[in-house]
Amino acid sequence: MNKKISHKIVFSYSLLILFLVVFLLVFFNDLVRNTHLGIIKDEMAEKLRFVELMVYRELTPGSDERKLREIMADASRIMALRITVVDLDGRVIFDSSVKRISDMDNHRYRAEISRAISSGSGESIRYSNTLRIDELYSAKFISPYVYRLAKPLYDIDRNLSAVRNMILSLGLIVVLISVAVTVYISNKITRPIKATLYFARHFSEGDYTRRILNYSEDEIGEVQRALNKMADMIVDKINGLLFEQKKLETTLESISDGIAVIDRNKKMLIANNAFLSILSIASSVVNRPFYEVIRNRSLNSKIEYALEAGSSIGFEEHLIGGAVLDVIMKPIQEEKALQGILVVLHDITEKKKVEQIKTDLVSNMSHELKTPVTIIKGYLETIQENIGNTEQVRSYIGKAIANAERQNAIINDILKLNMIETSNDFPMENVNLKDVISGCGELLKPKALAKSIALEVDLGAVDESVQTGRFLAEEVFFNLIDNAINYTNEGGRVAVTAEKSGDRKMIMISDTGIGIPRDAIDRIFERFYRVDKSRSRDTGGTGLGLSIVKHAADMLGWNIEVKSDNSGSVFTIIV
Ligand SMILES: Nc1ncnc2c1ncn2[C@@H]1O[C@H](COP(=O)(O)OP(=O)(O)OP(=O)(O)O)[C@@H](O)[C@H]1O
Ligand SMILES: [Mg+2]
Questions:
Q1: Architecture of domain 255-346
Q2: Higher local confidence (pLDDT), 48 or 358
Q3: How many CB atoms lie within 10 A of CB 166?
Q4: What DSSP assignment string belongs to 248-310?
Q5: Cβ count within 10 A of residue 425
Q6: Closest to 506 in 3D by CA, of 431, 435, 556, 572
Q7: Does ligand 1 come within 6 angstroms of the Cβ of 514?
Q8: Reported confidence tier of residue 87, pLDDT bands at 50, 70, 90
Q9: Which of 118, 157, 197, 328: disulfide with 344, CB 3.0–4.6 Å?
Q10: Which residue has a Cα nearest atom 8 of ligand 1?
């Protein structure tokens, strides 16, 4: 484009100059020719007066034609002009350029001669048939003849062509100089335009650091300043937008809820990582139709509905893997037209589980508490009926007391669990774990002995003091060793061993017991959960022991790992 501008300038200026030169050429040509002719004409008129003077002076009335010819021959020589003398009938009396005048035609009707006859003098420029050149004729009537002077025009033509050549060469020089000057000027004009264009092109291609460095001192300079200012503003705006976008992205990514925006053309515009991971989407989603990305028919049909209805909807969605989502779809409207929808997925799987656990807990608790009371009531009624039978009454009272104790044990466990759960301020003290675990072993030894179970405790690796809560630690180890004895058949073996692994200590409680089915391992820490309810009841178990262990370990920051198969179980506590 800049090339075109300079070309345009150079071309139009050159054309203008060329036009001026041609105009001057034509104008000067005419001017010079007319001036020249005027001078020659004046000169001829003067020379005719000179001829007239000679005629009056030299020729007396009655002089013959011969004398006339002699005088005219002299005059022609002196003036170096052709002289023709014609009488009023047009007969040529004398001609300085022609030997045999008798051969010459009648000149009566030559323009200059007939004008001289009629008005005293006449002129004409014509081609001379006699001499075969262009001549300027000037005639004067000097009674009784017409005297005519003739001057060949090739002199004028020669002068004219010299002038023309001069104008031409001058014109050429002027054209050349002007073209050079115009090229220079046009370059000067277009240079800042080029610089501006160069800047604009680079800026539009994304080089936002580029600016115009040297302003020209004219209107283009103003434009350049304005453009630089505009570029600064655009860069500021872009940076602002980028910052806003970053903020939005960071916010979206830090939200644990799945968030996506789907436009009215069913294309995904935004989807945060939580959205992708909740719906197990691995591919990129932006600008793809939602039904290609989300592989959930029920969810997709609801998205379709929300896009069509343009109203908010909320529902619970159960995914195939067992996850439960609280889904909210809200229309996004701009100027009353639906632009798309916002989809929010809130994972409520855990909440649902907790709700379920709570419901189970209430029913389990009431069941567990009701059972011993029912049994006690049964014994008391039997006692009432058999009050006389002392032997039987004693036995029933014993059984009733045992159930009351069980009831008491359950209530104690519930209270203990509640206490661990609600209190977060257990005293921390220097505790030797070896002592704590050995103490638990001692308390449970009689129980092991009663079942002929070998209880082996080897705790060399943890014979040192650690900062921990004594009460909680005792709960953990007592319950685990108690379980190991409870769920191991007579003649089995329970071992408590310890190992050090880096900073951490591992205490393993292993048994050769009945083991825990694989699918039950995840549930044994739930309240009241027992793999085999009848067997647990035999052992007096309520299913709260491991719940207490789990909560206590959590409070102390300990981890628990469970491994089990049909040859026994290993509970590992990592301190
Ligand atoms: N070492 C083990 N070997 C086999 N099964 C076990 C073992 N420890 C726990 N279990 C299983 O896990 C269930 C839950 O244990 P938990 O200690 O919570 O309850 P419990 O022993 O039945 O009753 P308690 O509240 O008296 O401890 C047990 O009923 C049992 O089925
Ligand atoms: Mg137990």
A1: 2-Layer Sandwich (3.30)
A2: 48
A3: 11
A4: HHHHHHH-SSEEEEEETTSBEEEE-HHHHHHTT--S--TTSBHHHH---HHHHHHHHHHHHH-
A5: 7
A6: 572
A7: yes
A8: very high
A9: 328
A10: 483
Cβ of 536 less than 6 Å from ligand 1 = yes
Confidence of residue 1 (pLDDT cuts 50, 70, 90): very low
Residue 520's identity, in one-letter code, is A
Residue 3: per-residue pLDDT = 55
CB-ligand 1 contact for 530 (6 Å cutoff): yes
Domain layout of the chain by residue ranges: 2-158, 255-346, 352-422, 429-574
Interatomic CA distance for residues 107 and 84, integer angstroms: 10
* Percent residues over pLDDT 90 in the chain: 45
Query: 429-574 sits in which CATH class?
Result: alpha beta
Q: Which residues are 529's β-sheet partners?
A: none
For residue 144, say if its preceding peptide bond is cis, omega within 30 degrees of 0. Answer: yes
Output the six-digit token pair for 571.
Answer: 């509970």
User: How confident is the model over 220-234, as pLDDT tens digits?
Assistant: 888 889 999 999 999
> At residue 64, does pLDDT exceed 90?
no
Amino acid (1-letter code) at residue 122 = G
The closest alpha carbon to 383, from 399, 372, 370, belongs to 399
Distance 372 CA to ligand 1 centre (A): 20
